[in-house]
Amino acid sequence: MDYQDLILQALKARENAYAPYSGFKVGAALTAGSGKVYTGCNVENASYGATMCAERTAVFKAVSEGEREIDTIVIVGGPVDEREELSVYAYPCGMCRQVLSEFGKPDMKIIVARSVSDYKEYKLIELLPESFKL
Predict the structure, then answer these.
(1) Annotated active-site positions, please?
(2) Of 75, 76, 66, 74, which Cα lies nearest the Cα of 33?
């Protein structure tokens, strides 16, 4: 699968990130079961616990629009001064992995990217084996 468009959308979403505390801006773009794309960015808060990750922002936007299944998510992130070629891969935190498992199947694709040509592809089950499910 060609993830170039999703990576570009995640990079664009990253531009809106609010990261004055960590200095680390993250963007995400996902495809829902309907085929529609939803994006999100991280929004930090001085209390840290109230910070929202880019991945959960995108998922909650999708769910609030009636989506219940996520097929693929792309995550990009790096220091605020980095623009196109990021120096690191930004992986989802534990809370984001659990939220992704709520709306994604075990073979859901999680793509971490530094650019449109530099990315790694995982299945959800690889990043969160034995997830909590009711």
Answers:
(1) 55
(2) 66
Helix axes 94-103, 54-64, angle to 10 degrees: 30
Residue 83: φ, ψ to 5° = -115, -75
Collapse the DSSP code of 52 into the 3-class scheme (helix H, G, I; strand E, B; otherwise coil) and give the result.
strand
The first and second tokens of residue 16, run together, are 């809106």
Nearest to 115 by CA among 2, 4, 1: 4
pTM for the whole structure? 0.95
Residues 92-123: tens digit of each pLDDT: 999 999 999 999 999 999 999 999 999 999 99
Residue 124 CA to residue 108 CA, distance in Å, equals: 5
Task: Give alpha helix (H) positions in the chain.
Answer: 4-14, 54-64, 94-103, 124-127
Asked whether the beta carbons of 96 and 53 are under 8 A apart, the reply is: yes
Instruction: Dump strand ranges (E) for the chain.
Output: 24-32, 37-41, 70-79, 104-115, 118-123
Parallel, antiparallel or unpaired: strands 104-115 and 118-123 = antiparallel
